[in-house]
Amino acid sequence: MTPKIVSYLSRWTIYVPILAVAALILTWGRDLPPPGVTVVALLLGVAVLAAVHHAEVVAHRVGEPYGSLILAVAVTVIEVALIVTLMISGGENSQSLARDTVFAAVMITCNGILGISLLVGALRRRIAVFNPEGTGSAFATVAAIATLSLVLPSFTTSRPGPQFSPAQLGFAAVVSLGLYLLFVAVQTRRHRDYFMPITTEGEVIDAEEHVEPPSSRTALNSLGLLLLALIAVVGLAKGISPAVESGVVGAGLPHSVVGVVIALLVLLPETIAAVRAAARDRIQTSLNLALGSAMASIGLTIPAIAVAMIWLPGPLLLGLGGTQMVLLGLTVVVGTLTVVPGRANILHGGLHLGLLAVFLFLAASP
């Protein structure tokens, strides 16, 4: 292979987001045949890898916890756009799409990303070490916002069914957004040291070792390419969503599985970034990504959906069912016991991955 070809291949993270956006423009609003769905799915996967690369470049430049915050917010903003778009184009099945997607995001982040990060870290160093003050406050915020937005609607009496009245929805949106912004202020300013990665020996890591941070120009280019890649990921995911819905219906699965698939696709960049951070003994960075994504998914999605309900038809079903509440409650209990000590082993990672497996199974077979 000639040096020129190698040079071109090494710059694939630049070309892929542009190519993915071009494919998005060409396929937007069209019914794709099976070969087209396959090509789009492959391009979507490569775009995810490109997004992870550019997110890590930006994170290296700005440092923690800003890097993980940028990726979490960027992914969640586009996730909200995808949910609103599908709700506009959907029928009755879309009334619970926001709930299904947000709940799936919480279970995937708090059990899947968190669990696999702890497992990778513990397998590498025997014990995964992180800051309990920062992780504990993040997990408490996730639990509070999730309960307010996803559990309370099943018990309020102003409206029939698992939904808020307009006043209740507006209040929940303001409180969720306020708690999220308060957490961001604590994470990035007042107690930033609580969210800095630490090694197994307890040493704080403030920068990548033996690697010079990228220049401001490189970081800005990566930020732009990251946004392009994320837009492509979510847009292409929407493009293949009819095939996903047809597959779900054809397999006899509940429609809520569509929300699970959306969450899995959208959270792929964060999952890969978290695992790679854990493999480098930066468990705190992995947990920042996991819990930050869960918090952003609720704290930004619920307010956005509340505003969108001004023109969206039909009710908004937010309240969880009994089975989902049990899983959420069990996740909160196990997660609390995991983060309080500030040290975890492979058992903790296995417990969370087991809860994720239960969630996925019950989503397909309620």
Structure description:
By secondary structure, this protein is mainly alpha-helical. It has one domain: A middle domain of Talin 1, CATH 1.20.1420.30. It is built from 13 helices and 2 strands. A two-stranded antiparallel sheet has the order 1-2. The chain starts with a helix and ends with a helix. One of its GO terms (cellular component) is plasma membrane. This is Ionic transporter y4hA. GO terms for molecular function: potassium:proton antiporter activity; sodium:proton antiporter activity. Its main location: membrane.
Spell out the key features of this protein.
about 375 residues, mainly alpha, A middle domain of Talin 1, two-stranded antiparallel ribbon, 13 helices, 2 strands, disordered N terminus, Alkaline_pH_Ca-Antiporter, sodium:proton antiporter activity
Strands, helices and their partners?
Elements: H1 3-10, H2 12-27, H3 34-62, H4 66-89, H5 97-125, E1 128-129, H6 132-151, H7 166-190, H8 216-250, H9 256-266, H10 268-279, H11 283-308, H12 322-339, E2 343-344, H13 346-364
Helix pairs in contact: 2-3, 2-8, 3-4, 3-8, 3-10, 4-8, 4-11, 5-6, 5-9, 5-10, 5-11, 5-12, 5-13, 6-7, 6-11, 6-12, 7-11, 8-9, 10-11, 12-13
Main location: membrane
Protein name: Ionic transporter y4hA
GO molecular function: potassium:proton antiporter activity; sodium:proton antiporter activity
